[in-house]
Fold this protein.
Amino acid sequence: MQELTHYIDGTHIKGTSGRFANVMNPATGEIQGKVPLASKDELYNAVSVAAKAQPAWGAVNPQRRARVMMKFVDLLNRDMQKLAETLSREHGKTIPDAAGDVQRGLEVVEYCIGAPHLLKGEYTDSAGPGIDMYSMRQALGVTAGITPFNFPAMIPMWMFAPAIACGNAFILKPSERDPSVPLMLAELMEEAGLPKGILQVVNGDKESVDAILTNKDIKAVSFVGSTPIAKYIYENSAKNEKRVQALGGAKNHLVVMPDCDLDGAVNGLMGAAYGSAGERCMAQSVAVAVGDIGDELVSRLSKKAEALKVGPGMDKSSEMGPLVTKEHLEKVKGYVDLGVKEGAKLVVDGRNLKLQGYENGFYIGGCLFDHVKKDMRIYKEEIFGPVLSVVRVKTFEEATKLINDHEYGNGVSIYTRDGDAGRTFASKIQ
Ligand code: NAD
């Protein structure tokens, strides 16, 4: 079994805490590796390496830092297939979804190539009598990121690329479920010319996260993950006087208007609800059917959801891979059970899917609920699996109110042929 490492000061280092987490292969249900869970001392050691390396990197002029990003983009493209396969093996998503994960991160790195321009300061002439003012954008020092399992390439890149392009050092604490791609990204950044110690990967769980939150040399923390942990990170980073951004869970609606191109809406929903097996913060897990379009929408969706080809992510013919862990599979199935109990109509039931040769994999077929009501937990809570809920409303106004009243309601789309309705929709969503 493969024993994974941390990546400290340009070297793969074995864990010394004696604690490990299993890294699963969701397609087969087998343990394929173990990842070390760092102690506070291991995390603090990485921070002291970063604090020593950062001043020299912060003094490199921004154009030269941007050149590292340019080279990194080339290397990501060179290794795209290898990264996607490694990602798929640990996360479970299909190879096209895994390559998309890398690609979306790569696009943030491309943006960071523009850092020299974005870092320009401002000058105010005569801010007061005889006083002119300059503002400059300067590196903070050591920064850190804590990332979720569902985008193990994109989300680390969202965080470390801007931080490093701005001259900071970065400690990445990836999800313990799929840590291999983050380690590969750190190697590629060094191949692209990044000095040692500027991007380090410390694998771990709550203990290393708590060490990030208390370490005095870490000036800023970025988090993406579930809402309860996001709140915890936000509160404790703020308490320890760090800059912090913490992004949590989601529930996204797609409004289907009676005048829309229904095939377009159905195809859009199939990708948005079932892509990456619904393990996406931006998954469109609620379809809001307006007026009398509900029956036809559900009829077309159910045919496609039933035909969805579920299989190992590495199999080219699979349209949807397994969920990340057995625990998560049980949680998602539990939500489907709950929806039935709450009185929603389960039109497509993926709970009993069995794949020959992959009996222990974490598979569930696409699920489709109709007549979901706004007080049901399957509507209110994030399921994070391939479960699409159809809520029927009479009017456009009712649709916008439903979305605005949702605790999350953060990503919304509309299918309509009426440009004015689209613009009104955008202006009504809060
Ligand atoms: P998670 O909250 O379980 O884990 C995220 C990170 O926090 C991991 O690195 C994990 O090791 C760490 N962590 C877990 N428990 C902790 C604890 N008790 N104390 C300190 N740290 C802890 O999230 P996940 O299951 O990996 O990811 C899925 C969630 O992420 C979903 O809710 C999804 O919506 C959200 N997400 C949000 C966005 C966004 O942009 N808003 C993007 C992607 C994912």
Q: What stands out?
A: The mean pLDDT is 96. Residues 146-151, 173, 175-176, 205-206, 209, 224-226, 229, 232, 247-250, 281, 382, 384 surround nicotinamide-adenine-dinucleotide (CB under 6 Å).
